[in-house]
Write a structure and sequence with these properties.
The chain is α/β, with parallel strands linked by helices. It has a single domain, classed as 3-Layer(aba) Sandwich (Alpha/beta knot), CATH 3.40.1280.10. 44% of the residues lie in helices and 21% in strands. It has 5 helices and 5 strands; from the N terminus they run E-H-E-H-E-H-E-H-E-H. Strand 3, helix 3 and strand 4 form a beta-alpha-beta unit. Helix 3 crosses helix 5. The two termini are 24 Å apart.
């Protein structure tokens, strides 16, 4: 099983990075390959339209998709899952690999959402993408523990 987290923007908050990395290490201890990759964010300073920013970031994200596997886009308009339901889906998605994509501050371009095998929403709330990275990595860890029957879920 291989899980990849692909996100826009270099993480800057050291505390959020530590927490994300902690869950990534926990996932790896179970023999699951966990990889976190980021692509540069395009500044939306008025030089480019919001659509153009999302499009440029989408090209970078799509360029980083490699090999076989499922693509799951993180988007507030996606489907919410319970932890148990998510673990069942990850079991299917991650055979052989699953890539979870988090967009930048303006969200994901339609080309990424349409390329995805599934669109997952953490919540209808909006989160900074650094916090979204933590939430996704924790939920992936939780899903792996459920699949392996390791006590953590409760």
């Amino acid at each position: 099983m291989k899980l990849r987290l692909l996100s826009v923007g270099k993480p800057r908050d050291p505390e959020a990075c530590k927490l994300h990395d902690r869950y990534g290490e926990r996932i790896s201890r179970f023999g699951v390959v966990y990889e976190s990759i980021w692509v540069p964010e395009t500044p939306s300073s008025g030089r480019y339209s919001d659509e153009h920013v999302r499009e440029r970031e989408a090209r970078r994200l799509i360029d980083r998709l490699a090999g076989p596997g499922s693509v799951i886009a993180m988007d507030a308009g996606g489907r919410e899952f319970s932890s148990v339901e998510l673990s069942r889906r990850i079991e299917r998605w991650a055979n052989p690999a699953a890539t979870f994509i988090i967009g930048g501050p303006l969200g994901l371009h339609e080309s990424v959402r349409s390329r995805a095998d599934a669109v997952w929403s953490l919540s209808s709330l909006t989160f900074p993408h650094e916090l979204a990275r933590v939430l996704v990595s924790e939920q992936l860890y939780r899903a792996v523990t459920l699949l392996l029957g390791v006590p953590y879920h409760k």
